[in-house]
Amino acid sequence: MATATTNSSPSAQRHVGFSRRTQAPRQLDDDSPPVNKYRLLSEIMARAPYAVLERETYSDLLCDQCGSGELPEELLLCDKCDKGFHMKCVRPIVVRVPIGSWLCPNCQGGKRVRTFSQKKIIDFFGIRRSSDDANDKRSSQDAKKRRKRSRPLVLHKKKRRLLPFVPTKDPAQRLKQMGSLASALTALNLEFSDHLTYLPGMAPRSANQASLENGGMQTLSKEDMETLEKCIAMSKRGEFPPFMVVYDSREGYTVEADDLIKDMTIIAEYTGDVDYLDKREQDDCDSIMTLLLGAESSQSLVICADKRGNIARFISGINNHTQEGRKKQNCKCVRYNVNGECRVFLVATRDISKGERLYYDYNGHEYEYPTHHFV
Predict the structure, then answer these.
(1) How many CB atoms lie within 10 A of CB 352?
(2) Torsional sign, CA 244, 246, 251, 257
(3) Residue 195 reports pLDDT greater than 80
(4) What is the DSSP string of 306-324?
């Protein structure tokens, strides 16, 4: 049988010969310390992939946090360390039983914070260049003129109007705010999206009709529509609301005000992929938002922020079963009819001071979201 070197190509033979000729001769030095050819076992185990090992029985499984074996239907088993944890004892808590493998916080390790340069932040959020600013300013001026001309002669009772957010004036601080959001989205493998997304295989845009709403929905007035358009134009220029995304070991990713937020200010639109509720009822996603409540269940739509989303994805929910939890609420979720389509917005319900964490009630309408274990 011919050897491998006989059948090898001339280029391969030249490469092998070159490697041998350029190899430096090893020198023996009695004073030099011996070279450690082997890695420590602890280092190997830290980098090695984990294997799922099944016990013979889990009847004696206890929660590693509270030491109790009660409520076995809420006990989660870590696929790496094989320890048990109650869903309510884990921080951040687990709202739904995960589908697939699950790792406890200790096995997940610390959250890696990724830093972004100014160019990467601009590319990440798809911010427009200065050439587009003139068109946005002209459209804003035209909207003000229309508002002055359309002012009625008869005075009516003053309604509470939505207010546009006021971005931070310091460009460097705005980059820090956007960088904190980009880091949180990247850590969860999410894409940034500031609008609703309609994908093949999910609900089409034609299914999003506000006329099918059966649970009650507000209609966005012309004045509020102008405010919304102003907020959208500012976001496209990179002038986002003054918020910082901060990771908390008990609550996960949270949102804190980086400046004063006045009452009735538009905080953000809840964005993500639009899908039918019937297809997502058994989903373990913890960021599903009601978009449309139809008279028939087949017409109901939800927003799923498990692939795409914005800062609304990280605003915390209150424990609406306690008085202390309800006191935390400083914004609300409102569904609006915008040009015949359903949209969801988060609006401040009072003045929010700098450094204050944002909270709203996840059970604003249906009261089906489990919040009794929220911090």
Answers:
(1) 23
(2) negative
(3) yes
(4) SSEE-GGGG-EE--TTSHH
Asked if 197 contacts 347 with a C-beta cutoff of 8 angstroms, the reply is no
pLDDT at site 342 = 96
- CB-side neighbour CA atoms (13 Å) of 335: 21
Q: Any idea how long the chain is?
A: 375
Amino acid occupying residue 300 = S
Report the alpha-carbon distance of residue 303 to residue 310 in Å, rounded: 12
Which segments within the chain are labelled E, that is strand? 75-77, 84-86, 191-192, 218-219, 243-248, 252-257, 266-269, 273-276, 288-292, 301-304, 308-309, 316-317, 331-338, 341-348, 359-360
Domain ranges for the chain, please list them: 59-110, 118-124+161-360
User: Is residue 99 a contact partner of residue 76, using CB atoms and an 8 Å limit?
Assistant: no
Is the Cα torsion angle 282, 91, 313, 328 positive or negative in sign? positive
Q: Is the dihedral of CA 118, 119, 120, 122 positive or negative?
A: positive
Tens digits of residue pLDDT in 116-171: 777 778 787 887 765 555 555 555 555 555 544 444 444 444 568 999 999 999 99
Strand, coil or helix: 121:
helix
Task: List strands edge to edge, sheet with 301-304.
Answer: 273-276, 301-304, 288-292
User: What tokens were used for 253?
Assistant: 């990713």
Distance CA 261, CA 240 (A): 13
Mean pLDDT for the chain overall: 79
Handedness of CA 175, 180, 185, 189 (dihedral sign): positive
Eight-state DSSP code of residue 163: B
Does CATH number 3.40.50.1010 belong to domain 118-124+161-360?
no
Strands 191-192 and 308-309: parallel
CATH dotted code for 59-110: 3.30.40.10
CA distance 278 to 52: 32
Q: pLDDT at position 117, please? A: 77
pLDDT value of residue 248 = 84
Query: How would you classify the pairing of strands 301-304 and 288-292?
Result: antiparallel
